């Protein structure tokens, strides 16, 4: 007997697909941030404190990308039925 609550099969599959897509998108975005922004910023400097400072400043770039993504998603939701 399972300790997990039982849900209808269709609802479970749709929810699982949504979670899998969200996790894959988050991992892909994190990998892109690390590979395309964080690593080049780290390699641009030789002193440890400069590398740490550059890495910290890349968080502003990450926040800007998250903001642009949220604004784009909000625009899609807002204008979905108008076009």
Low-pLDDT parts are none
> What's the order of the H and E elements?
HH
Kindly name the structural category. mainly alpha
- What does the largest sheet look like? none
How many domains? The number is 1
Number of helices: 2
> What is the first-to-last residue Cα distance?
49 Å
- The level of helicity is over 70%
Report the principal-axis shape. flat
Radius of gyration: 19 Å
Nearest-integer average pLDDT: 90
- Total count of strands: 0
Structural commentary:
It is a single chain. The protein is flat, with a radius of gyration of 19 Å. Helix 1 runs antiparallel to helix 2 (48-79). The chain contains two helices and no strands. The chain has helices at 9-43, 48-79. It has one domain (9-79). The chain is 81% helix and 0% strand. The mean pLDDT is 90. By secondary structure, it is mainly α.
Question: Which descriptors would you attach to this protein?
Answer:
83 residues, mainly alpha, 81% helix, 0% strand
């Amino acid at each position: 007997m399972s300790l997990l609550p039982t849900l209808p099969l269709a609802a479970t599959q749709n929810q699982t697909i949504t979670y899998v897509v969200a996790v894959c998108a988050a991992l892909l975005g994190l990998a892109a941030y690390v590979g395309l922004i964080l690593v080049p910023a780290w390699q641009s400097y030789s002193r440890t404190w400069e590398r740490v400072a550059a890495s910290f400043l890349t968080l502003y770039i990450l926040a800007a990308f998250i903001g642009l993504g949220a604004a784009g998603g909000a625009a899609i939701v807002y204008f979905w039925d108008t076009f």
